[in-house]
Design brief:
This protein is 29% helix and 16% strand. The chain has a seven-stranded parallel sheet with strand order 4-3-2-5-6-7-8. A six-stranded parallel sheet has the order 11-10-9-12-13-14. A two-stranded antiparallel ribbon has the order 1-15. The chain has 402 residues and is α/β, with parallel strands linked by helices.
């Protein structure tokens, strides 16, 4: 990446202030990358900040990518069968590399343990990952962050009410993931026909997911029917363990070979919204991915496999956006396929609620969310760390790719 300097001829050269070092630290599965990486890219254009992206896996790109740990972390990942090394091991491996940063930006909460490991200098910034309704998205640990970037008014109201954020230490920036996941036009090549596409997206929690009691039966009922194409793309953590994933792929191999069934138990495609863009109906339970789907309001069908008393529980707020069925649907004459057809036909009854819910969840500004997040974060860091004051425009460094 080359560097080009532009200086206004009428102004004398002025020394650049030292850049503030900001690390975007990823200590989880790949689904969290898209919730913070767009902000890293946008902030990297500001010469007041030196941006690193650190993870336990190798990478390359226009920003400096830093690998933490080494072969011993890879060995731990192989030993436990996970797609990524254990989080605590990564924190231990990364703590020395992270100690010289002015700010550390993370989409998860476990990395707050770095404060106990001696990282008292750095400011910790939280981007959240997802904008759902479940209580886990409003974890009490969020209160330990110095600054929080929010997707919209829903998060702001609830986090303020629960004492998780305070005035001057948060900003509503919108949903940065949308900046890197624009609608794709070539996705329909998955299927050789133009039938409506059903996306089945079960959560990973055994206590909340429809997968343990309903998952395979749902796939087999769609497999026997010729009305729809089916994409099975669970939350990536459901089959994060490689051995568990391989065993399930073998179990479902006969279904995956069918021309109208596509099963993806954890590829990049399962997190980059390409399936969401293709779907005519979302079938799921408690995943926040439903809001990514509803950014363009469409039919939904929810599965209450754990028989929750959900009507007055705000953790199930998204279940107001479509019919909610329990496991007895699998025993009905038309099964889940008939319920899917009914959900599509009845969408008008839920469309207004969907639009209101999306507007409350995602703040839709005039500029991309990652740019809004960058402006808010840069202003807050400049205020709390004065040495990061932005250089006057005529002396700003322009980074030229190539």
């Amino acid at each position: 990446m080359g560097r080009a300097w532009f200086v206004h001829r009428d102004m004398p050269p002025q020394p650049l202030r030292p850049a503030q070092r900001v690390c975007f630290f990823f200590n989880a599965q790949i689904h969290q990358l898209l919730h913070a990486l767009p902000i890293a890219i946008a902030l990297s254009r500001d010469p007041a900040f030196a941006i690193d992206v650190m993870a336990a896996a190798q990478g390359a790109g226009p920003i400096r990518f830093v690998r933490c740990g080494g072969r011993w972390l890879d060995g731990l990942a192989r030993l436990n069968g996970g797609a990524t090394p254990p989080k605590l091991a990564v924190l231990l491996a990364a703590r020395r590399q992270l100690r010289d940063y002015d700010a550390i930006v993370v989409p998860e909460r476990t990395s707050l343990l770095l404060k106990r490991l001696g990282l008292s200098k750095a400011k910790f910034v939280h981007t959240c990952h997802g904008a759902g309704d479940r209580a886990v998205g409003y974890d009490k640990r969020i209160a330990q962050f110095d600054f929080v970037l929010l997707a919209g008014e829903k998060q702001r109201q609830r986090m303020l009410a629960e004492g998780l954020i305070r005035e001057g230490h948060y900003a509503i920036a919108g949903y940065s993931k949308f900046d890197l996941t624009a609608r794709r036009s070539g996705g329909r090549s998955l299927f050789a026909n133009d039938r409506p596409v059903i996306l089945y997206n079960p959560h990973f929690s055994d206590k909340l997911s429809s997968w343990p009691t309903m998952g395979e039966a749902i796939i087999r009922q769609f497999a026997r029917d010729d009305r729809f194409n089916l994409i099975v793309a669970p939350h990536i953590r459901l089959f994060d363990n490689r051995r568990k994933r391989a065993a399930m792929e073998a179990r479902l191999a006969d279904l995956a070979r069918l021309p109208h069934v596509h099963i993806d138990l954890g590829s990049r495609a399962s997190v980059d919204m390409r399936y969401v863009h293709m779907a005519a109906l979302y079938v799921g339970d408690v995943s926040s991915q439903v809001y990514e789907y509803l950014a363009r309001p469409r039919p939904c069908l929810f599965l209450n496999a754990h028989r929750a008393a959900w009507h007055d529980d705000r953790s199930y707020g998204h279940w107001r956006y479509g019919p909610v069925l329990d496991s007895s649907v699998l025993d009905s004459a038309d099964g889940i396929v008939g319920a899917a057809a009914d959900a599509i036909a009845s969408h008008d009854a839920y469309a207004d609620a969907q639009r209101q819910g999306v507007a409350h969840t995602f703040d839709d500004g005039a500029m991309p969310a990652s740019m809004r997040a960058t402006q808010a974060l840069a202003a807050w860091l400049a205020r709390t760390q004065p040495r990061a004051a932005v250089t006057p425009a005529p002396y700003r460094e322009v980074l030229a790719h190539g």
